[in-house]
Automatic annotation (TrEMBL):
<protein>
    <recommendedName>
        <fullName>C2H2-type domain-containing protein</fullName>
    </recommendedName>
</protein>
<feature type="domain" description="C2H2-type">
    <location>
        <begin position="93"/>
        <end position="115"/>
    </location>
</feature>
<feature type="domain" description="C2H2-type">
    <location>
        <begin position="46"/>
        <end position="68"/>
    </location>
</feature>
<dbReference type="InterPro" id="IPR013087">
    <property type="entry name" value="Znf_C2H2_type"/>
</dbReference>
C-alpha cells in the first residue's frame, strides 16, 4: 500500500457482512462514512443514492445492495490523500464524515485543525506486533520516542538508562503534548509545544 486511501481501505472493508447481529456487535459504524453515508445523531443519509436511512440495520442492508454498490462505484476521489470523494454535487470527507458544497470549502476543510487531528488518528496505529505505523511505514520505538544515542529529542536532554527515561512522567507528558503532522507518507514530523522539565512534573505532584 502506498497511500492513505489504500491503508484505510485495508482496515475498513467495502463489503459489510450480511449478518446484522454480527455487524452490530462488532461496532462497524465507522465504515459507513467510507460508503458515502453521512451520520447525524441517530439518522443517516446516503449521498450516493440520496436516500435517508433511520436505523443502523437499514444502513447495513442498504450498503450491501447492488444498486448502492453500483452508484458508489461511479464516485471518485478528488483529493485522494485527504480522502475527499465527489459524490453527486457534494464533496465528502470520509475521515470527518462531512459533506462540503464546493471545492473552495474542501481546501479550507483540509487545513482545519479538526480534520488534521482526525487524519493523524487514522493513519497512526500499532500493528498486531505492537509496532507503531504511520500509513504503512513502520517506526521503531526509539524513533517514535525521539531517542538517539543517549539523548532524547523530545525532552531535549541526555539519559543514562533508556528504559527509565521512557517510563519517566516528564518524557511521557512531553511526548503526548507534541503535535504530530502528516503531510504525506514520508513527510511525518512533530512540532514543538510546551516542553516540561522533570522538576515541573515533580512540582505538579506536590
Amino acid at each position: 500500500m502506498h497511500s492513505l486511501v489504500a491503508s484505510i481501505s485495508a482496515s475498513l472493508p467495502r463489503v459489510i457482512c450480511a449478518d446484522l447481529d454480527s455487524c452490530h456487535n462488532n461496532k462497524m459504524l465507522p465504515t459507513y462514512s467510507y460508503q458515502g453515508v453521512l451520520r447525524y445523531y441517530r439518522d443517516y443519509y446516503c449521498l450516493a443514492c440520496q436516500v435517508k436511512l433511520e436505523t443502523e440495520s437499514n444502513v447495513i442492508k442498504h450498503i450491501c445492495e447492488e444498486s448502492h454498490e453500483a452508484k458508489f462505484a461511479d464516485t471518485n476521489y478528488v483529493v485522494a490523500e485527504e480522502n475527499i470523494r465527489k459524490i453527486n454535487e457534494w464533496y465528502h470527507c470520509e475521515m470527518c464524515n462531512r459533506a462540503l458544497k464546493s471545492f473552495a470549502s474542501v481546501k479550507l476543510h483540509i487545513s482545519e485543525k479538526n480534520h488534521i487531528t482526525t487524519k493523524v488518528k487514522l493513519v497512526a496505529r500499532r500493528d498486531a506486533s505492537g509496532t507503531m505505523c504511520v500509513h504503512d511505514v513502520e517506526i521503531d520505538e526509539n524513533s517514535w520516542n525521539g531517542l538517539s544515542e543517549g539523548s532524547c529529542l523530545i525532552c531535549d536532554c541526555d539519559y543514562t538508562d533508556e528504559n527509565n527515561h521512557l517510563k519517566d512522567a516528564t518524557h511521557v507528558v512531553n511526548l503526548f503534548q507534541r503535535k504530530m503532522n502528516v503531510h504525506s507518507k514520508y513527510n511525518i514530523y512533530r512540532t514543538n509545544s510546551t516542553r516540561m522539565r522533570s522538576k515541573d512534573v515533580k512540582n505538579q505532584k506536590k
